[in-house]
Structures are given as structure tokens and as C-alpha cells.
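C-alpha cells for chain A. Residues wanted.
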């Protein structure tokens, strides 16, 4: 990667790492579904004018139904699940669990698209899910914590979100190939907004959320969704999807730093070790890393 791409890579990692912090700020006042709905609505308002400016509205209208359904699965549902999880577990732990997205993507591609992994990628899947099991084992209590939510439910919600991401990624590959990534991004946020609007309206907090909550909602909508998508697509264009997806590995680092600095969260050696296992497994499962060949060189 050249210097500009490295800068984009680090900036995107830092931005997506902050999404857990900003979601945590918002969900305390807004509640779970309103937080997700406000996030996708703000992202829609940010992205749609760019689509219009680039003359891509006809493409969006033509394929909107498919984009909207995948958008609800790729944005609406997982954003709500992570908002729920962040009421009970730390931003750092949530970000580490989020690093399993490529694992679920590879597993679903194998089951659905018959993209059978080779031995190295299969080993990566096993290693990655062992890391998840190790990390989740420490949070297996179904006894409600201070938030009223048991840590085990929060972990399952976060993993449910990453499963949604994996399904959506494969569905997009199957049904949205050839579309402008910007159209997919804006349309998916619009579809998620429509899908979450009614339940979010019913669950809207009786008391107006405070300034910290609104700051978190605006930041996660504009910065962590709108701006991040633009950076991500530029990174894909300049470096290819395989290198772009590696941004997932750095996101937990920034999330842990933010959680420690701004929320006073602690990081345990067990979390670090499990995170390393998950990242190693993910790198193997996506083909970004391979076991060294044991065949003698001739």
C-alpha cells in the first residue's frame, strides 16, 4: 500500500473503533432500537445527496427492494444488537467480538455459495471460533448485571450481529454484484431506516436524550457510518477487498484505547489473548495469512 492508502487504512480503523464508544453514549438515553434507527437515518441523510450528486439515483431506484432487505440485515439489525450488547459489556469486548465478521462470512460462503475453504482457511475457521468460545466462556453468566442484562445475552447479541454481517455480505455478493458500492451503502441505510422507523417510534424515550447522547448518535451516523463507508470503498478501490477487510484487525485496538481513556474500562490479559487468537483465525480464514508450506523446495 502507498502512503495515502495506509493513511486511509489507519483512519478507517480509528473511526470504526470509535463507533462502539459513540453507540454507548447514545444507547443509554435513546434505548436500543431508537439508537439504531437514529444512526441509520443520519447516515442516510449524509449519503443520499452524494448518490444524487454522482447521478446514481436511477440505479438506486431500480434495485432498491433488494438493497433495502440486505440493508436491514447489514445495518438495522446488527446496529440494534450491538447497542443492546453495549448496555452490559465493554466497548473493547464488543469490538473483539466484531472481529469475527470475516469468520462468519467465510462459514456462510461455504454453506450457501459452496465456496469450500482450503485446509489453511478451514484451520483458520476452527482457530477463530475457538478464540470466540474462550472469550465468551468468561461471560457465560445469565445472571443480570448492573444494567439488568446478563453478560451472556450481550455476548450472544454481539455474535448475532456479526452473523448478520456475514449473511448480508454473501447476499450482497449473490444479488447486488455490479452495483456501485456507494448506491449499496446509501440504499442499505435507507432500507434500514424504513425498517426500524415504526418500532423505534413506539420505543422512543419519554424524556428527551441529553447532549452526550445526541453527540454520540450524530457521530456514529455521520462519521462511523457515512464517512467510514466512503473511506472503505476508496480503500477497496485502491488496495483490493482482501487488504481492505484487514481493517477489522485494528478496530479492536482503537476501541480498547477509547474505552480505556473515555469510559475507564479495563482490559484483561485474557481478553488480549483471546483477541489475538480470533485475529489469527480470521487472517487464516480469509486467506490474508497462510500456514507455511511443509513441502521441500525443489
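Reply:
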Amino acid at each position: 500500500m502507498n502512503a495515502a492508502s495506509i493513511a486511509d487504512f489507519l483512519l478507517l480503523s480509528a473511526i470504526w473503533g470509535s463507533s462502539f464508544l459513540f453507540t454507548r453514549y447514545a444507547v443509554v438515553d435513546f434505548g436500543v432500537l431508537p439508537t439504531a434507527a437514529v444512526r441509520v437515518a443520519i447516515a442516510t441523510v449524509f449519503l443520499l445527496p452524494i448518490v444524487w450528486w454522482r447521478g446514481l439515483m436511477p440505479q438506486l431506484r431500480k434495485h432498491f427492494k433488494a438493497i433495502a432487505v440486505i440493508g436491514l440485515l447489514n445495518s438495522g439489525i446488527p446496529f440494534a444488537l450491538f447497542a443492546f450488547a453495549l448496555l452490559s459489556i465493554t466497548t473493547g469486548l464488543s469490538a473483539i467480538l466484531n472481529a469475527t465478521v470475516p469468520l462468519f462470512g467465510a462459514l456462510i460462503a461455504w454453506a450457501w455459495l459452496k465456496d469450500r475453504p482450503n485446509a489453511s482457511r478451514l484451520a483458520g475457521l476452527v482457530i477463530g471460533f475457538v478464540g470466540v468460545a474462550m472469550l465468551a466462556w468468561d461471560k457465560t453468566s445469565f445472571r443480570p448485571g448492573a444494567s439488568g442484562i446478563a453478560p451472556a445475552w450481550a455476548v450472544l447479541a454481539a455474535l448475532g450481529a456479526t452473523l448478520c454481517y456475514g449473511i448480508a455480505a454473501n447476499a450482497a455478493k449473490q444479488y447486488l454484484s455490479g452495483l456501485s458500492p456507494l448506491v449499496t451503502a446509501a440504499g442499505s441505510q435507507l432500507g434500514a431506516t424504513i425498517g426500524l422507523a415504526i418500532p423505534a417510534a413506539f420505543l422512543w424515550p419519554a424524556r428527551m436524550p441529553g447532549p452526550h447522547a445526541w453527540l454520540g448518535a450524530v457521530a456514529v451516523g455521520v462519521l462511523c457510518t457515512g464517512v467510514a463507508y466512503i473511506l472503505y470503498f476508496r480503500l477497496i478501490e485502491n488496495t483490493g477487498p482482501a487488504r481492505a477487510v484487514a481493517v477489522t484487525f485494528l478496530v479492536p485496538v482503537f476501541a480498547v484505547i477509547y474505552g480505556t481513556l473515555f469510559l475507564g474500562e479495563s482490559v484483561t490479559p485474557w481478553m488480549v489473548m483471546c483477541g489475538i487468537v480470533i485475529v489469527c483465525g480470521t487472517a487464516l480464514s480469509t486467506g490474508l495469512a497462510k500456514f507455511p508450506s511443509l513441502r521441500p523446495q525443489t
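The chain has a mean pLDDT of 87. The chain has 13 helices and no strands.
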